[in-house]
Amino acid sequence: MKPFAITDTPADADARKAIAPVICYPVEGLPRPDISDYRELRDDLDLIETLVVPPRDAASWTVPAGHFFRILCSEGPQVGDLNLFNANDLNERFYSGKTRALNGTHLGLGDQLFSNFPYLRPLATITHDTLDWYGFDEFGGSVHDVIGTRCDPYTHNLLSKGGQYHYCCHSNLTRAFAKATGKSLTEAEPFVHDVLNVFMCTGFTRDTGQYFMKASPVRIGDYLEFFAEIDLLGTLSACPGGDCSTEHSSDKVQCHPLVVEIYKPKRAPRGWAAPQPNGYDRTHTS
């Protein structure tokens, strides 16, 4: 949050502010899938697994490359924090910062979730979103953000002057990842990373630039659907904030489970092949 200015306004302040912005990462050259090829497969999918993520807790699943998975609102408004990993190399995981830089602050149909360095390739592609009608509201809020980090017990401890809360999304994800991989909690925690906030409605205040949340528009039956570009391990926390209309990291608000469904298509998209790791040679020299 920027404080009130304590320096004198320069004579050319208006001219400096009037300079037009430049997009940091022009994406015209970014390889993009033909989303229509992916969506053609959606009319004939076989449901092969269903997983329930309990409220204020997390669960993990695996999905093979070339399959679809959906995150569903099953019993009431609820947001979820999603981590994704390469199921065959856990060092490769979702990179929310670069995904944000290449797609925008909030994700939707056709956007891809990218992995961390040195891999930097698509992990998954969003193929359907029943909340795409929401767009951006009058407050600048939208759904499925990659700007928040995940609620965590460290920030909670800091802001609550010593409070101990063990069901923040960070802790939920840590427990679920540890269970899925056989790692101890201490070993598992460093793998937990910044998330895709599924169904969460967020933005930045226009006056102070502070991250805000508001009641999620998600309702029973809504879902966000992904196509797995590589073999994935997913971990999802049903946030202790419920629909995030009042607070998070709390046992007070109403929370609901989320459901994950995994689908097998009858065929692969035309010409599809799992993306290879990034082609940079990693010499870091001339």
Indicate the topology:
Layout (H helix, E strand, L loop, with lengths): L12 H5 L17 H6 L4 E9 L4 E6 L4 E6 L6 E7 L2 E5 L2 H8 L8 E3 L7 E8 L12 E4 L7 H7 L9 H13 L3 H4 L7 E9 L6 E4 L8 E6 L3 E7 L19 E8 L21
Antiparallel strand pairs: 1-13, 2-12, 3-11, 3-13, 4-5, 4-9, 4-12, 6-7, 7-11, 8-9, 9-10
Give a description of the structure.
The protein is α+β, with helices and mostly antiparallel strands and 286 residues long. It has one domain. It is built from six helices and 13 strands. It has helices at 13-17, 35-40, 96-103, 153-159, 169-181, 185-188; strands spanning 45-53, 58-63, 68-73, 80-86, 89-93, 112-114, 122-129, 142-145, 196-204, 211-214, 223-228, 232-238, 258-265. The strands form two sheets. Strands 2, 4, 5, 8, 9, 10 and 12 form a seven-stranded antiparallel beta sheet that branches. It has a six-stranded antiparallel beta sheet with strand order 1-13-3-11-7-6. A hairpin with a 7-residue loop joins strand 6 and strand 7. The protein is globular, with a radius of gyration of 20 Å. It starts with 12 loop residues before the first helix and ends in a 21-residue tail after the last strand. The model has no long low-confidence stretch (mean pLDDT 96).
Share of helical residues: 10-25%
Label the overall shape: globular
Structural class per helix/strand content? alpha+beta
Please state roughly what percent of the residues sit in beta strands, choosing from under 5%, 5-15%, 15-25%, 25-35%, 35-45% or over 45%.
25-35%
Radius of gyration: 20 Å
The largest sheet is: 7 strands, antiparallel
The count of domains is: 1
The count of strands amounts to 13
Distance between the termini: 40 Å
Q: From N to C, what is the helix and strand string?
A: HHEEEEEHEEEHHHEEEEE
Low-pLDDT regions:
none
Number of helical runs? Answer: 6
Q: State the assembly state of the protein chains.
A: single chain
Integer average pLDDT: 96
